[in-house]
Amino acid sequence: MTTRYLALLALLAGCDGSETPATSGDADVFPRDTLVIAFQSDAESLLDVVSQSAADGEIIQNLNYPIIDADFDCEMKPRPALAKSWEWNEDGTILSMELRDDISWSDGTKVTASDIAFTMELVADSKVASPRIAYIENMKADGRPKVIDETHIEWHFTHAYDRITQASHAAVLHTAPRHILEGADRATLRGHAFNTKPTINGRWKLAKWDRGERIVLEPNENWTGPADEMPKLERVIFRVLPEYATRLIELETGGVDLMQGILVSDADRLAKEHPEIKLHRRGWRSIDYVAWNQVDSADFKAMAAAVPEGERIDLDAVKRHHIFGDREVRRALAKAVNVDKLIDDLLKSETTGEVYGKPAVGTITPALCNVHNDDIERIGFDPSAARSELEGLGWTDSDGNGILDKDGRELSFSLMTNSGNKRRANASIIIQATLKQAGVHVELETVESNTFFERLRKKDYEAALSGWSAGLFVDPTVIWHSGPEYEFNFVSYKNERVDELIEAGLREPDPEKSAPLWQEMQQLIYDDQPYAFLYWMDEIVGVNERFEDPKIDVQGAFRDLHSWWVPADKVKYRH
After folding, report:
1. Does one domain contain both 430 and 560?
2. DSSP character for 175?
3. Same domain, 527 and 553
4. One domain, residues 249 and 310
5. Structural domain harbouring 13
6. pTM, to two decimals
7. Strand 214-219 vs strand 412-418: parallel, antiparallel, or unpaired?
8. What is the pLDDT of residues 516-569, one digit of tens each?
9. Is there a single domain that holds both residue 486 and residue 467?
10. Per-residue pLDDT tens for 53-107?
11. Total domain count for the chain?
12. From CA 201, how far away is CA 69, in angstroms rounded?
């Protein structure tokens, strides 16, 4: 056997058995298989209330049964899950749900309405510091939700607004078990043992977690929901492979079965050389941008150290960043970022000419057809104009070294991004080069993914090339509303009119009337340039052909793993 083959067998070995390649004679006896997924970074927290990374969410959604599931076509199309039915009252201020009575936690305890109420109680508690605080802001304190009995709840809203957004606010979080976490110290919930050994209520269970190496899911033998939703695969293994090149090699050689975020150039080659790898496109869900931190990170850290635990920093008292605190500087910098080149170089097929990206003008995805503002005029690439505008703002090259300076400080900053993302690494180099044309010096900094997201949350950076998996319902609060409680507003953006539009949009029940509010908001944010908005990506996902019914779409690359299966004559591994 080759070293790679032996390593793969070792990887697939379980704690109570092992996986070995199936022979044709085994196929009818062992009709199930193992799916091996290349994961860029390890998960951190498996409690949805405090989770913050995409890796967390991708594991959590397979461990837990959603309150409401959904399909998507220009907007969310809700369908039953834990909530088997729901209805609004006449004025749209109360959403009543009837829950299934047959769903249990993995320890045998029934999932009830009190678990859902407890989950939202955690969100509301300032000690928890949940980044999902915006979800409850339009709910009454005694109705988020109001428990009627074990299977009936009512969500009482302070006012009516878009019903898809209302339902998403109520149901987007996965439920936390009251009987496990009720006595936990809420100030240290991020460090609770639950985050690594969760009690779950979904179709999969966490079988093993080797930090930095792999996460193993197996069918939850205690699943009490619909029998036809029991997983058809034997096991799912998330291999933590931080480097893009490693993930790609493993996909090509069969070490993994699924890889997200395949570069367009590699997709062209895979299509020719590896017909066994089927390429799927997810649609407009992922955006890349450069975040400009508008507060002084050193001053923020000093204030954070002095603030008592559980209290939030007054962002208005923090010093503004000497570069990014100025709106006009940010707009000038936008002229020195060549978005069209980034798309041509990174997201265009040399083989077919097909483009897998489009310029971004905000964080509302174009997939939300009726809400996205298609009329925003983009800031064009013009490094000469950028330099002229910066000089007009007092930034001049006083010492002739090619870098603009002002008051003894150079127009220089660190651009941080996460490791293992080749597209962003390449984008960083292009951005560095075009900003240099405008007299701006950029130092590139690459940080391990979980550290990267933690530094964003703590505002411990100057500029960051990052991205979002965009929300599929409209509520920009957590990213763009001002206030220290919104941790995902890690650029400390503040615009009073934007705040007003967010609040007004979340008070309008008619989507046709709220759409203009959201479109005005997008225009104002783009004008302010708190991010240099780069591009939306039609992400490419590669999956081995033996898997049937893979659900890969704008909602996720593997959100319904219980439905994936392998025909008996194609099974590769048996347990």
Report:
1. no
2. P
3. no
4. no
5. 3-46+202-257+546-574
6. 0.84
7. unpaired
8. 999 999 999 999 999 999 999 999 999 999 999 998 999 989 889 999 999 999
9. yes
10. 888 999 999 999 999 999 999 999 999 999 999 999 999 999 999 999 999 999 9
11. 3
12. 15
